[in-house]
Amino acid sequence: TQLLEQSPQFLSIQEGENLTVYCNSSSVFSSLQWYRQEPGEGPVLLVTVVTGGEVKKLKRLTFQFGDARKDSSLHITAAQPGDTGLYLCAGESGAGGGNKLTFGTGTQLKVEL
Amino acid sequence: NAGVTQTPKFQVLKTGQSMTLQCAQDMNHNSMYWYRQDPGMGLRLIYYSASEGTTDKGEVPNGYNVSRLNKREFSLRLESAAPSQTSVYFCASSNDLLWASGSYEQFFGPGTRLTVL
């Protein structure tokens, strides 16, 4: 079974601070996705990274896929209360498993005024 | 478009009772999935369906059955509910199961919060 460990599990910061969330595995993934989930709703895709070393930016969010495609990070600059939510990484193996995703353990982020 | 819809939103069962969770999508997606979400464990795949008429086990299938009724609908059944099945259940769909398609996004429903006493 492939495992994706996220750290930290919980993060409470003040508006304007920067933060980084990590997603680590011993397995190689063909792609890595990041989702955000708000209370009472399902996860919503933020970004997909496919190439080892790839960096993608989405406004104040920067996503990086590790060179070996085993890990990823999400960096948020100048966090805002609207960034509050559960962040989930998800790896896709592509090894005959089709589009099945392995989800990480999640990082609960709270941004306070 | 409603996207992915799930019913019911909340349910309380007694141990041993049965129930079916309903899911429908209106995006003409081939693939559909059922996950459960528990604190500190992310989302775990219960069953998935690559196309109408096919279903396969995921990571945690024990105690569950599924039916892909047609392309739109994918139901999850608990035959004899147990307290360990207390969880939030999410249905999702995506437009292709083949990873080489280049598009992997899964669209999720709002979830069903199930409590088994």
Short structural summary:
Chain A has 113 residues and is mostly beta strands. Chain A has strands at residues 5-7, 10-14, 19-24, 31-37, 44-49, 55-58, 61-65, 71-76, 85-92, 101-103, 107-112. In chain A, strand 4 (31-37) and strand 5 (44-49) form a beta hairpin.
Based on CA inertia axes, which overall geometry of chain A fits?
A: globular
The 3D shape of chain B can be described as globular
Strand segment tally of chain B: 11
Share in β-strands of chain B: over 45%
Looking at how many chains there are and whether they match, the oligomeric state comes to heterodimer
Gyration radius of chain B, to the nearest Å? 14 Å
Biggest interface between chains: A-B, 27 and 29 residues
Question: Could you tell me the strand content of chain A as a percent range?
Answer: over 45%
**What's the helix count of chain B?**
0
Run of helices and strands of chain B: EEEEEEEEEEE
The major β-sheet of chain A equals: 6 strands, mixed
Write the SSE topology.
The complex is a heterodimer of chains A (113) and B (117).
Chain A (H helix, E strand, L loop, with lengths): L4 E3 L2 E5 L4 E6 L6 E7 L6 E6 L5 E4 L2 E5 L5 E6 L8 E8 L8 E3 L3 E6 L1
Parallel strand pairs in A: 2-11
Antiparallel strand pairs in A: 1-3, 3-8, 4-5, 4-9, 6-7, 7-8, 9-10, 9-11
Chain B lengths: L3 E4 L2 E4 L5 E7 L5 E7 L5 E7 L6 E2 L6 E5 L5 E5 L8 E8 L12 E2 L3 E5 L1
Parallel strand pairs in B: 2-11
Antiparallel strand pairs in B: 1-3, 3-8, 4-5, 4-9, 5-6, 7-8, 9-10, 9-11
